[in-house]
Amino acid sequence: IQLVISLCFFIYILIEAWALFYLVFSFRSQIPWASCENTWNTAHCVGLQTFNSSHVTANHITSAAIEFWERRVLAMSGGIEELGSVRWELALCLLACWVFCYFSIWKGVTSSGKVAYFTATFPYVMLMVLLIRGLTLPGAWQGIYYYLYPDLNRLANVKVWIEAGSQIFFSYSLTAGTLNFLGSYKDYNNNCYKDCFWLCLLNSGTSFVAGFVVFSVLGFMAQKQGVTVDTVVESGPGLAFIAYPQATAMMPLPQFWTVCFFLMLILLTVDTHFVIVESFITTVTDLFPKMLRAPVRHEIFVLLICLFSFLIQLTLVTEGGIYVFQLIDFYGSTRVCQNFMAISQCMAVGWIFGADRFFNIIKDMTGQRPSVFFKLCWKYIIPLLSLISFILYLVDYKHLRVHNWYTYPDWAYALGWTMTLSSVLMVPLWAAGQMCLTPGTFRGQSSMKMYNFSQQPTTRYKLFKNNNQSRISTCLLIIFQRNPCKSVEN
């Protein structure tokens, strides 16, 4: 299941390729998205100094930043039916990103861990530089006020909470398998409780600080254009590749601030992407350890994965590639997958494996027993909230649209739901297969005996079971509890 979800997450390397494209253009003496004196601009283009967002609906004009994004970077076609030709400049950027990814992970965690020291820490330097600059801009506090004092009436909208929950899933990589992969390399007695606390604190804290960086610049941009902040707020790729570059182009020394921003964005996406790819590769090699763990074979296998992914993703850098990207982004790992996986994993941990047994393992590992609140979350709160979110999403489901005017053909929506069901249906199908193949009775009491974990050097442990274990417990443990172990004995 997590393999399928990871494959969908592979597409986010395209954000890195876009950022690299912008970074190259940031070194020009004249920022190309600041004026309309370029070959790709139309008669409706207006330069940033005279652009006012309220004119867009009134006079059907577009800013130079929008035209650079849509006509120069993407060269957008009329729809997914018109893929067009490959954009060779974007293809080169995509190739460079995959080459960097390969040399970051080709030796496994030995190489990726060293790269992460730089890619995970240097963005904080860039973030602080952009924060200081953003707070000194005129109009910055207007944007910060909009950020810190939102419309409280929106909190009564259930959809806002559903979107917030989805963002938490994505931000923390929940149900994606990457945390399982990274945690499997820790020592057995590592304090996972403390790690989880710091992970949540740093993740949410970074997001909170990044909000000041973004909204201070949006406030400056709103003051320059003489409009309110909500008028210039963008979501999705538009924020990173239209709104923020548009704002930096209005500052003194625009090249410097643009380079800082896109360098930070590249390092953030690099870090995220090679962890996703490494988790996929580790999972596959653990299925075939004798074949794929040999030194030379492992490097070749990683090379083949990167090469094959690059060739497949050439469709994303065509003239209709943005439509393919948004289709995979919307359906490949949507809230249906996230919530369904959250329900399934909580059922496996809290009910099938047993919350008390899980507590005992954590106590044996860390020396302290977690709060009973976590047991309530695993058994009741998270499954209930995920189920409610799952149902509300299906009830309020609307077809994906691009720019509120382009509607995908029926075959594209069918393809999208196929991607969604490819991960969701994997749970019952794999469970049914394991129940048919595993010896034992369906109603047999689970009497699984765990190996003495304290004797193991790492969390890549061996899992033992006796013949009396129920089939349901066995199959769900195989699905949800399997770590990328060096050796797993059934």
UniProtKB/TrEMBL annotation:
Single Gene Ontology MF annotation: metal ion binding
Positions with a binding annotation for Na(+): 171, 203, 268, 271
UniProt key word Transcription: no
Disulfide-bond pairs as recorded: 36-45
Cleavable signal peptide: none
Listed GO CC annotations: cell projection; plasma membrane
Record bears the keyword Membrane: yes
Mode of membrane association: Multi-pass membrane protein
InterPro entries for the chain: Na/ntran_symport, SNS_sf
Domain of life: Eukaryota
Subcellular location field: Membrane
Transmembrane segments: 7-25, 86-105, 125-148, 168-185, 197-222, 256-281, 301-328, 340-360, 372-394, 414-433
SUPFAM superfamilies listed in its UniProt record: SNF-like
Protein name: Sodium- and chloride-dependent GABA transporter 3-like
